[in-house]
Specification:
The chain is α+β, with helices and mostly antiparallel strands. It has 6 helices and 4 strands. The N and C termini lie far apart (about 55 Å).
Length: about 160
């Protein structure tokens, strides 16, 4: 790959961009946790699909991705850089295509991909995600674990999901 002309300042700034545990992602996780939601972070929902979700609700089969407005081409806040414009357009369009492919692959495996933009308020995004997870649990017949649930009956999945 041809090395693109850049400055030391730009190179330093771009190398410091976090890909996980960003401020937006942590704020969403805190808001979800405050609502009583329990989840896993940075997991691959489907084996064989090399895509990692930021937040995963396993039993409900919901994968949440927190997308940056610049990197994923937000329809509201996307900007197209003037420097190395061709490179950045290809990069961002490639990210969008990968996001669509990820959503499709997860759907084919029975998962629902939820996209949260970085500009969304954490509380409203958490409420939206929580409503989606609750609806999926109802749809799939999966109960959320209650605090202190520990008996086999409470932890046992419904007969429909066990194939009985």
């Amino acid at each position: 790959m041809e090395k693109l002309p850049t400055t030391a300042t730009v190179r330093t700034r771009m190398s410091r961009q976090k890909s996980r545990d960003t401020g937006v992602e942590v704020a969403l996780r805190k808001a979800l946790h405050a609502e009583g939601a329990r989840f896993r972070i940075h997991r691959k929902p489907v084996k064989g699909v090399r895509r990692e979700a930021d937040i995963v609700f396993g039993p409900a089969r919901v994968a949440v991705f927190v997308d940056g407005c610049f990197w994923h081409g937000c329809p509201v806040h996307a900007t197209w850089p003037k420097n190395n414009a061709e490179f950045w357009r290809a990069k961002i369009e490639g990210n969008r295509a990968r996001d669509r492919d990820t959503d499709r692959r997860l759907a084919e495996s029975g998962w629902l991909a939820v996209r949260v933009w970085e500009h969304e308020a954490a509380a409203s995004a958490a409420s939206r995600v929580r409503a989606i997870v609750d609806a999926r649990r109802a749809e799939l017949g999966v109960r959320g674990r209650k605090r202190g649930a520990g008996t086999a009956e409470e932890a046992d999945p419904p007969a429909v999901l066990r194939g009985v």
